[in-house]
Amino acid sequence: MKRDVIALAALLATSGIGHFARPGPFDRIVPQALPGSPRTWTYLSGAAELAVAAALVRPGSRRRGALAAAGLFVAVFPANVKMALDWRHAPPVYRAAAYARLPLQVPLVWWALRVARSAR
């Protein structure tokens, strides 16, 4: 298995586990426009990340998993925007981290699409 596939799956699995182990920070960045409880969205997104990670490590589902990862990275972008807005008055280190997440989504989407192309 290629190193980039393993790394992408590990990133998603780690984040997915984090959604269950420490859901509070994730709850706080769920956009208020979403219906229902933020905790529900935290758990759903964590489960999605774990499912996508599992799909990536199976050769038969790797392409679909990588495309799902790209979609997931796009789907969570509003949470990153909310975090950046909420933290605009936070200490500089926190503010920098929140702002850095915004452009980081682009290389993550690109990475997932590259894995999808290589899985053909």
From TrEMBL:
Location of the protein in the cell: Membrane
Q: Which GO terms describe its cellular component?
A: membrane
Pfam families for the chain: DoxX_2 (PF13564)
Name assigned to this protein: Putative membrane protein
Which InterPro entries does the UniProt record give? DoxX
Keyword Transmembrane helix appears in the UniProt entry: yes
Q: Which PANTHER family match?
A: DOXX FAMILY MEMBRANE PROTEIN, MEMBRANE PROTEIN-RELATED
Organism taxonomic ancestry: Bacteria, Bacillati, Actinomycetota, Actinomycetes, Micromonosporales
Say where the protein is mainly found. Answer: membrane
Domain of life here?
Bacteria
Q: How does it sit in the membrane?
A: Multi-pass membrane protein
* Keyword line: Membrane, Transmembrane, Transmembrane helix
Q: Does the keyword Cytoplasm apply?
A: no
